[in-house]
Write a structure and sequence with these properties.
Layout (H helix, E strand, L loop, with lengths): L7 E5 L3 H18 L2 E5 L2 H10 L4 E5 L7 H10 L8 E5 L5 H9 L2 E6 L4 H84 L6 H33 L7 E4 H14 L7 E6 L3 E4 L1 H17 L6 E9 L2 E8 L33 H11 L3 E5 L7 E8 L22 E4 L3 H13 L4 E4 L2 H11 L3 E5 L7 H10 L7 E6 L4 H10 L3 E4 L4 H11 L7
Parallel strand pairs: 1-2, 1-3, 3-4, 4-5, 7-9, 13-14, 13-15, 15-16, 16-17
Antiparallel strand pairs: 6-8, 9-10, 10-12, 11-12
Helix pairs in contact: 1-5, 2-3, 5-6, 6-9, 7-8, 8-9, 11-12
Membrane topology: Multi-pass membrane protein
Enzyme class: transferase
EC number: 2.7.13.3
Length: 539
């Protein structure tokens, strides 16, 4: 416990002899009782002392010129800090009952008459000094207790934060575990279908119709796998800010309308009542990413709305925003889920069959893409079984429609000779067969060095080069082909599983003409080859 200040006693008397006698008498016991003695010659002097110090007791002479003892006592007790200081009046005259009453009304606790009897003074002073020391101890203990309480409160708050952070981490880990389990399920389903279809094609006696159906299954499930990989990559890119938007003026209503037409054409919305009310509204956006937003919001509505349900799609302008609203009358969302519906690895439970598949990360991607466009997306639901509404807001722009430029005349040319450099044996064989089926003359190489030799020997018009090659990678292959006068004019298309803006930059810096991300759609590949083909074709 810290050392306490000694209690102080103030003696107030205008008579110098009386003041000296009292202070000297009190000084005899000061060391023993551990207190200090201060003196004042007038009421004004006493008030100055009270402003500077706290006192255990004040010995106050009643009869003083100017401000007497009663007035001095009233002034001392009028101040909040000194209101509780006990005052013992000292007088040489015998006080009557009225004087005593007046003294007590001004805060006196006792009377002493001169000449003062030392033993009585000592007894009275000891009580007040002991009381002052005890009060100071209590104040000190109260301060310590308050400090300990504050420390305990802070520790408790830290503990509660740690508990909440641990619970949050556990929830996220649990959600990630569920997500990985779901990812495994979503990957195994199409892989199983592809494996079964491939085995069916190889069975003796299988009909031509069965082979065709198996091929369609392989194609459809391969596209499904590609969409799963794209979702994962897009979310990763969006969260890390590595998506670059190709923003152009576009009509959001027209884009949403085209998306709805695709859903109708593919039969994905056949079992639902689709109501649309699309008012024009122009935004500066990336058409591919905005279509991705619309598709994910529609997929979410379809997934959590039973067959026969109603889905309303509206677009309109509101102040400086273009708004897209998708409302359904499906399973809705609980109040607990609603604040977290756009979080990564969070997915609401549904009693519906998950036949449409998906990873449940679409809404997280929607929010990030909306933010990259300078917009926002909100979710609202009145509760379970009461449907949901998702509202996208994008900054509106002023736009005047300009006449479209006349299409460039299509150049007819023969089929170019192709070189395919790919280290995956199955992938190389399948693509070579596919290109051969489309009438192309194709040479293949299994690594970068073999590819350079084949290019020098075969002199192709166009080379399809995988980036992740053993020995030397696709970037180095392109650089060496461009550095050789015999091969520098070969058109180069990069085939890679890397689709970030940084990857596109590296591809172009290495000397490629085009950049295609695996898995490559056959029509996209044919267009790329057609656009890159040299004219005239080698004889």
């Amino acid at each position: 416990m810290p050392k306490l200040d000694k209690p102080k006693i103030l003696v107030v008397n205008d008579d110098a002899n009386s003041l000296f006698a009292l202070t000297s008498l009190l000084a005899q016991w000061a060391e023993q009782e551990s207190y200090e003695v201060l003196a004042a010659r007038s009421g004004q002097d006493a008030l100055r002392q009270v402003l500077m110090h706290d006192f255990a007791v004040i010995l106050l002479d009643v009869n003083m010129p100017g401000m007497d003892g009663f007035e001095t006592a009233a002034a001392i007790h009028a101040r909040a800090r000194s209101a509780d200081i006990p005052i013992i009046f000292i007088t040489a005259f015998l006080a009557d009952e009225l004087d005593r009453l007046k003294a007590y009304q001004h805060g006196a606790v006792d009377f002493l008459f001169t000449p003062v009897i030392p033993q009585i003074l000592y007894a009275k002073i000891s009580v007040f000094v002991a009381l002052a020391m005890k009060n100071e101890e209590l104040k000190t203990q109260a301060r310590q207790l308050s400090q300990q309480t504050a420390e305990l409160t802070a520790s408790n708050q830290r503990l509660m934060r740690e508990i909440e952070e641990r619970k949050s981490a556990e929830r996220q880990n649990h959600a990630k575990d569920e997500f990985l389990a779901m990812l495994g399920h979503e990957l195994r389903n199409p892989l199983s279908a592809i494996a079964s279809a491939a085995s069916l094609i190889g069975l003796p006696g299988v009909s031509l119709d069965g082979v065709q159906r198996a091929k369609k299954i392989i194609q459809r499930q391969s596209q499904h796998l590609g969409r799963i990989v794209d979702d994962l990559l897009d979310l990763s890119r969006a969260m890390s800010g590595k998506i670059l938007l190709n923003r152009v003026p576009l009509n959001l209503a027209a884009l949403v309308g085209q998306t709805l037409d695709t859903y109708r054409a593919t039969g994905r919305s056949t079992d639902y009542e689709m109501v649309q009310d699309l008012d024009a509204g122009w935004v500066a956006g990336d058409s591919t990413r905005l279509e991705q937003i619309a598709s994910n919001l529609l997929d979410n509505a379809l997934k959590y709305t039973p067959s026969g349900g109603r889905i309303e799609i509206r677009t309109w302008t509101e102040n400086d925003d273009v708004v897209l609203s998708i409302r359904d009358n499906g399973v809705g969302m609980s109040a607990e889920l609603l604040p977290h519906v756009f979080d990564v690895f969070v997915q609401g439970s549904s009693t519906l069959d998950r036949s449409q598949g998906g990873l449940g990360i679409g809404l997280s991607l929607v929010r990030r893409l909306a933010e990259l466009h300078g917009g926002s997306v909100d979710a609202d639901s009145k509760g379970a079984e009461r449907g949901s509404t998702f509202t996208l807001r994008l900054p509106r722009i002023e736009h005047t429609v300009e006449p479209a430029p006349a299409p460039a005349p299509k150049v007819e040319h023969g089929k170019p000779r192709l070189l395919l450099i790919e280290d995956n044996d199955d992938g190389r064989e399948m693509m070579a067969m596919m290109l051969g089926g489309y009438g192309y003359d194709v040479e293949t190489a299994a690594d970068g060095l073999l590819g350079l030799s084949a290019a020098a020997r075969y002199q192709p018009d166009l080379a399809l080069v995988d980036i992740g090659l053993p020995g030397i990678d696709g970037y180095e292959v392109a650089r060496r082909l461009r550095a050789d006068a015999a091969t520098r004019d070969i058109k180069l298309i990069a085939l890679t599983g890397y689709g970030l803006a940084e990857d596109l930059r590296r591809v172009m810096d290495a000397g490629f003409d085009r950049h295609l991300v695996k898995p490559v759609d056959i029509e996209q590949l044919m267009d790329a080859i057609d656009n890159c083909a040299r004219v005239p074709v080698k004889p």
